[in-house]
Amino acid sequence: MKIRIMTIEDYDQVYHLWKTIHGFGIRSIDDSREGVERFLKRNPTTSVVAEEDGKIVGCILCGHDGRRGCFYHVCVEEAYRKHGIGRQMVAASMRALQSEGINKVSLIAFTQNDIGNAFWNRIGWTKREDLNYYDFTLNEENITVFIE
Fold first, then answer.
1. pLDDT tens, position by position, 88-126
2. How far is it, in rounded angstroms, from Cα 51 to Cα 7?
3. CA 96, 131, 76 angle in degrees (round to 5)?
4. Which sign does the torsion angle of CA 18, 138, 116, 145 carry?
5. Rounded CA Rg of the chain
6. Which of 2, 11, 119, 147 is the right S-S partner for 24, CB 3.0 to 4.6 Å?
7. Edge-to-edge strand order for the sheet containing 69-76?
8. What pTM value is reported for the model?
9. What domains, with CATH codes, occur in the chain?
């Protein structure tokens, strides 16, 4: 298993992986090839993939704004879970953030994502109970589709 920096050349395999993850939310604009390419250009060293024999089996989109890092779209193909791949990808992205002077990283996990929430708890992340999360849609055409 190889954990390496994600490039736009990985997009087709990564997008295919996303479409296999139950409950995964894919946005029509942000998660398009152009949207991911824009994200990777802004954050060229922090997103990673897990690759086994040329096949991408895991991914983290990770970026930062100069102050705090954020994980997006963390996933591992179901058949490859429980082998430490998620932990390795998280560690690689966190090292990349630290090398850029970032001292804190956050993520959003859907409340019904039992597998993901258990993973974050298991590896020592803290669920915040002291704040509310808000967002505002700037482009109504950026539709989210959930994978069933």
1. 999 999 999 999 999 999 999 988 889 999 999 999 999
2. 13
3. 40
4. negative
5. 15
6. 147
7. 2-5, 48-52, 55-64, 69-76, 105-107
8. 0.92
9. 2-146 (3.40.630.30)
